[in-house]
Amino acid sequence: MKILLIDPPFYRFFNYYNRYFPLGLSYLSSTLKKAGHQVTLYDADCNVSPKGIDYTRLPDKYHTYVKELKNPENPIIKEIPRVFEKFQPDAVGITVMTPKAASAFLVASLVKRYNKNCYVIFGGPHATLKADEILKNTRDVDFVINGEGETSMLELVNILSTADTGSHAGNGKTDISPALSNVYGLSYRDGNKNIHNATGRFIDNLDCLPFPDRESLLGLHTYTSEDMGLLMGSRGCPYNCSYCATQIWTKKVRYRSLTNILEEIKYVYQRYGTRQFTFKDDSFTIHRKRVLEFCDCLSDAGIKINWDCNTRVDLVDSELLKAMKKAGCNSIKVGIESGSERILKLIDKGITLERIKESSRLFREAGIHWTAYFMMGIPTETKEDTKHTLDLLYEIKPGFASIGVYEPFPGTRLFDIGVESGLLNKEMSYEDFFTRIPSGYYLKDVNRRIDTMSHEDFAVLENELKNAFHHYNKGFIRIFERVKARSYLYVNNPGIFFNDIEKFFGWI
Question: Alpha-carbon distance 349 to 46, whole Å?
Answer without folding.
Answer: 33
